[in-house]
Amino acid sequence: MTAVPAARSSRTLSPVPAVLLAVISVQGGAAVAKELFPALGAAGTSGLRISLAALVLLAVFRPSIRTLTRAQWLAVIPYGVLLGGMNLSFYLALQRIPLGLCVTVEFLGPLAVAVFGSRRASDFLWVLLAAVGIGLLVPWTRGEGALDLVGVLLALVAAACWAAYIVTGGRVSRLFSGGQGVAIGMTFAALTVLPVALAGGVVSRLTPGLFAAGLAVAVLSSALPYSLEMTALRVLPSRTFGILMSLEPAVAAIAGLLFLRERLSVVQWLAVLCVSAASAGSALTAPRAPPPVEA
Fold first, then answer.
1. Are 258 and 33 in contact (CB under 8 A)?
2. Which pLDDT band holds residue 193 (cuts at 50, 70, 90)?
3. Alpha-carbon distance 116 to 282, whole Å?
4. Angle between the N-to-C axes of helices 121-137 and 99-106, in degrees from 0 to 180, rounded to the nearest 10
């Protein structure tokens, strides 16, 4: 386990609170984004959020585009496209199903990456637990109160994009220093989503108030949590980080209840807890490894 430096500025947030604040920030940003759907649409909100996040990251990290090698381009372009696809499909799913359930289904992506190729019996237990959770969410019957099947499928697309994004992100982190890879990747994410957003007429609907709200979503969902997570990852073991991140589905469900008045049934809460427990269990029983460190 990496030790926390003895000398720490009083202004520096401790790693565990930093991760928890990042989780709350992301889900709070998603709740704000959903409030923009009636005015901008899911695709329009996604395009606005990613474009503003890209501009913020480009201004902060100032990546040197002209010096990129062929290997760097081949890594960062698919990384960015997957990031854009993940965000767009997540927002399209969020338009149809509650925030907590959308995040729960999407969380299958990182869980699949965590247990893929494993031969440990415990990992198959976590997969089974996650499958039970998703089984509880599947709309086996139709009628009032049934979950939107298209929304669930879109969340599964977001989960698949997230899984592939994690794999490609590992390569980007090795080829780029600091946040340059993320800044360039976010730019390609914006280029992926913007055509869909523009086709939906987001520009004609945009007002100064909506633009400000979109900027808040970009900061809450991208800039702030990224900074907090990078700070925490310098000192936290990856196992601890994974366990803390497994709280996201539950935090999303609470954010949906508080800000969007989305009430989940007892069965749906049980599904959220199953997937969160599977993610936490997978992180807890993973082989010990030092935390990733920002280059």
1. no
2. very high
3. 11
4. 150
